[in-house]
Design a protein that fits this description.
The protein contains 4 helices and 4 strands. It is α+β, with helices and mostly antiparallel strands.
């Protein structure tokens, strides 16, 4: 079964032809069907390229800009509030945020 078949299956998605990126954030039961790069032995080779591009972008940001934490606390935004198999973040946390305080030459 191809990713195209999975993503357009009306038995999985109520309106498969409708562009709705929020379907992934509002329904965790759909996680197994999120297959942008495919899965298994026939997985897209572009996945490694995409993750490498993401890493290069982050490295470029960290090298070119001076950053500092913005409205971030260790207790609310960094520490785990629960642990089953993987640590869980605080649901009230807006995430770890930073602001640019300078540009490196």
């Amino acid at each position: 079964m191809t990713p195209h078949d999975v993503l357009l299956d009306p038995s999985i998605f109520t309106e498969p032809e409708t562009f709705d990126p929020d379907r992934w954030t509002s329904n965790p039961q759909l996680d197994p069907y999120f297959v942008p790069f495919g899965k298994g032995a026939r997985m897209c080779q572009g996945m490694r390229f995409a993750t490498t591009e993401l890493n290069l972008a982050l490295v470029t940001i960290f090298r070119r800009f001076d950053l500092e934490l913005y409205e971030t606390t260790k207790e609310r935004d960094v520490e785990y509030v629960g642990d089953g198999f993987l640590g869980m973040h605080n649901p009230q946390s807006p995430g770890i945020r930073v602001k640019v305080v300078g540009i490196r030459q």
